[in-house]
Design goal:
about 450 residues; alpha/beta; Rossmann fold; six-stranded parallel beta sheet; 20 helices; about 45% helix; about 15% strand; globular; binds iron/sulfur cluster
Amino acid sequence: MSCELKVKERAGVINPIFTCQPCGAQYASIGIKDCIGIVHGGQGCVMFVRMLFAQHFKESFEIASSSVHEDGAVFGALNRVEQAVDVLLMRYPHVKVVPIISTCSTEVIGDDIDGVVRKLNQGLLKEKYAGREVHLIPIHTPSFVGSMVSGYDIAVRDFVTAFAKKGEPNGKLNLITGWVNPGDVTALKHLLSEMQVDTTVLFEIESFDSPLMPDKAEFSHGCTTVEDMAGTANAVGTIALNRYEGGKAAQYLESEFDVPAIIGPTPIGIRNTDTFLQNVKKLTGKPIPESLVRERGIAIDALADLTHMFFADKKVAIYGNADLVISLAEFCLDLEMKPMLLLLGDDNPNYQNDSRIKVLKENVDYDMEIVTNADLWELEDRIKNRGLELDLILGHSKGRFTSIDNNVPMLRVGFPVYDRAGYYRHPVVGYAGAIWLAESMANTIFADMEYKKSREWILNVW
Ligand code: SF4
């Protein structure tokens, strides 16, 4: 009986769990107000990513491409960045922040995006856009290392590094949410407002759940401003909810500006939400109010109705972003379930030293596998060929055919979710998220019991 952390042995990837680094940088950039990123690469590096965002949120997002072609791949394509910046600024007079996001091709050909930013700052911006506030931020996200998760982490760090500026203390708390949904941001803001904590949310994507207004003019965009990012250097502290999605920025603010940083835990489940609130209290001195104790009690009551009766010993496979997967596994263990297989879609060497994985290794009393650099074939192969029996799969929509083909019920969690309606609206974090996750897992299992006529009579007498 053991919990083993291993790297996928097979070369190549079949049905990847993640997309590439520029995707993460694009996700961070759409969380900033008055920002349109230019992805320096082929158009597909934007087109497919925008499609994922649109599929997940059922909204449209604005991201630009330098549209590199064959000549650029041979002779260099920095001229296309210069043209793209000019066209973007002409066409969008409100734009202030323009990250230049590199890709695999432009990193391989060696395009110097830092150099072109210096050149544009000295030339185009002074000559043609004098007096206009424009920030060009180079972000290096070659796709042949890391994943969309590390791309997000790098971009968040680079934005904070570019803007954070020491000034007067502002008494605010920095909250780096990581790769979450609008419903999560709403839930987190609710917890912090109950504690009366003034917070800077990086990156504020609650408005991705945007209205359709009579003039049809609404475009989804984030709400984090340049001023918000500048003020992060003057906060009472930073909480990065996810170690691999914002942890670097929190560390930077601590080392550069002495802003105390607490990284994790991802507040999924009761235990981790409790720790999150304790961390907020520690950094701000604000007490945890009775209203949140009551919300906690409602969540525990909801979980108690389900845990022993329906969740005990249920075998689960979980895949996706590491912070999400690990905290979902922790929550499942609290619910008496058995996470059998955790698939992390990249090969971040820091997973080896992740304290949460160490705790799992020390405490799990059955056979659990944690596979890094994993793909969805790792899941399918175990179900089809290696006798892995599962009661539930937790993961994003890319694994839907593994669930359908093998008759294993699945709850969609993570990014992207495009084959279920409105999931971005529901939180997985906080006490509200614990209720939603547990009840959604239970309802998924209930529907499967009825479909397979497997002890479905229990639901009559529950
Ligand atoms: S792998 Fe390379 S070419 Fe493909 S989308 Fe990512 S950055 Fe673009």
